[in-house]
Amino acid sequence: MTDVNLETLLAEKLIGDSPKMQQLRTIIKFAGRCNSSIMITGPSGSGKEVVADAIHSISDRGNAANIAVNCGALPEHLIESELFGHEKGSFTGAVNQHVGLFEQADNGTIFLDEIGDMPINMQVKLLRVLETRIVNRVGGNRNIGIDVRVIAATHKHLGESIKAKAFREDLYYRLCVVPIEVPALNERAEDIPALIAHFLKNQSEANPLPVFTEEALAAMQRYEWPGNVRELRNVVERASVFFAGREIFAEDVAILVQSVIAPANQNVETAASAPSDAWAAAQSTQGSPNTVHRENNVRDLNAHMQSEERRIIMNALDRSHGVVSRAARSINIKRTTLIDKMRKHNIDWQVEDHTDYKIAV
Ligand SMILES: Nc1ncnc2c1ncn2[C@@H]1O[C@H](COP(=O)(O)OP(=O)(O)OP(=O)(O)O)[C@@H](O)[C@H]1O
C-alpha cells in the first residue's frame, strides 16, 4: 500500500485531526507494519475497535480474515470451543465439528475485545496458543498450526486486575508488545465538529439534515462526553430526528444530551426533562449554583461516584423492567459493561425484592 493510499484509508476510518489523533495515526501506521501483538486501551466508546480495524486494514493481512470476539459476551463454558473449535461428539451438544475463531482467522487478525473479562482458566490456554501458535480443538488430538495477529482491547485498568489476580501478568506482557492508548473524546474536543459532520453524512436521506450553529458546536465541545464517540454518534442521530431540517442552537444541545445521565438530586421522572450533570458543567465554567451546592455536600468523591453509578443503574433497570440490554442502551453503555457493573454493585434479582433483573437477557 502506498503512503498516500494508507493516509486516505486512515483518514476515512478514523475521523479527527487533533494532535492526539495525529499521534494515534502515527502509532497505527507503525503497528500496521509490524506483526506483534497489540493491546489497545481507552475508555468505552472511544474507538478501540475502529483502531483495531484500521490496523488490520493497513497491514499485510488486510485482505485476510479480521475476526472480532467480545470476550465478555461469550458464555464461560463455550469460550474454549468458540475460540479453538471442537470435534464432533466432544461434549453434549457438540453434534458437529466446529472450526474455532483462531483457525478462521488464519493468516489474518483476531480482535479480542474486553480481554479483561476473559476467565482466568482461559487466559492460561490463550497464553499457550500465543506462545506456541498451535491450537487444539476441544476433544481433538491434532496440533493445528495458525498464523494469526492478535489485537486485544480493554477499557479496564488491567494493572488493577493483575493485582487482584483476575488477570495473568504473563499474558498481559505477551499481549502488550505494542501498547496503544485511545484518548477520551473530551481530550480532543477539536475533533468534535469533524465527527459530527461524519455522523450526519451517515444519516438516512429521508429527513433533511439539521444544521449545528457555531454556538451549538461550541456547546458540544464543552460537554464532557462520558460515553465518548459512541455517545456523540447517538446524539447526532437524535439531533437528526428532533431537529430535521432545522438549526440547532446552544440551548438545544441540552435537550440532545439530557437523557444520558440524570442529575443527582432529581428522581427519574423529573430527570427526563432536565439537563445532565455533564451538561450543567458544560454550561458554565464556574458551575451552576446547583452544581456547587451538590459538590459542597460531597465528602468522599469516590464513594459518591460509586453510589451515583449504582443509583443510575438501578433507575435504568427499573425503567427497563429489569431487561438488561434495554437498560444498557438507555444509559449508553454496552450490555456487557452493565452486567459488569451490576456484579460490582452486587445488583441481582435475589437482592432487589421488587424487580426481576434478568442478567442474561
Ligand atoms: N475516530 C473515529 N472516527 C469515526 N468513528 C468513530 C471514531 N471513534 C469511534 N467511532 C465510532 O464510535 C463508536 C464506538 O467506537 P468503538 O466501538 O470502536 O469503541 P470502543 O472503544 O471499542 O468501545 P467499547 O470499549 O465499548 O468496546 C462506533 O460507532 C465507531 O464507529
From TrEMBL:
<dbReference type="Pfam" id="PF02954">
    <property type="entry name" value="HTH_8"/>
</dbReference>
<keyword id="KW-0902">Two-component regulatory system</keyword>
<dbReference type="InterPro" id="IPR025944">
    <property type="entry name" value="Sigma_54_int_dom_CS"/>
</dbReference>
<keyword id="KW-0010">Activator</keyword>
<keyword id="KW-0804">Transcription</keyword>
<dbReference type="InterPro" id="IPR027417">
    <property type="entry name" value="P-loop_NTPase"/>
</dbReference>
<dbReference type="InterPro" id="IPR025943">
    <property type="entry name" value="Sigma_54_int_dom_ATP-bd_2"/>
</dbReference>
<protein>
    <submittedName>
        <fullName>Sigma-54-dependent Fis family transcriptional regulator</fullName>
    </submittedName>
</protein>
<keyword id="KW-0238">DNA-binding</keyword>
<dbReference type="InterPro" id="IPR002197">
    <property type="entry name" value="HTH_Fis"/>
</dbReference>
<dbReference type="Pfam" id="PF25601">
    <property type="entry name" value="AAA_lid_14"/>
</dbReference>
<dbReference type="InterPro" id="IPR058031">
    <property type="entry name" value="AAA_lid_NorR"/>
</dbReference>
<keyword id="KW-0805">Transcription regulation</keyword>
<keyword id="KW-0067">ATP-binding</keyword>
<dbReference type="Pfam" id="PF00158">
    <property type="entry name" value="Sigma54_activat"/>
</dbReference>
<dbReference type="InterPro" id="IPR003593">
    <property type="entry name" value="AAA+_ATPase"/>
</dbReference>
<keyword id="KW-0547">Nucleotide-binding</keyword>
<feature type="domain" description="Sigma-54 factor interaction">
    <location>
        <begin position="14"/>
        <end position="241"/>
    </location>
</feature>
<dbReference type="InterPro" id="IPR002078">
    <property type="entry name" value="Sigma_54_int"/>
</dbReference>
<dbReference type="InterPro" id="IPR009057">
    <property type="entry name" value="Homeodomain-like_sf"/>
</dbReference>
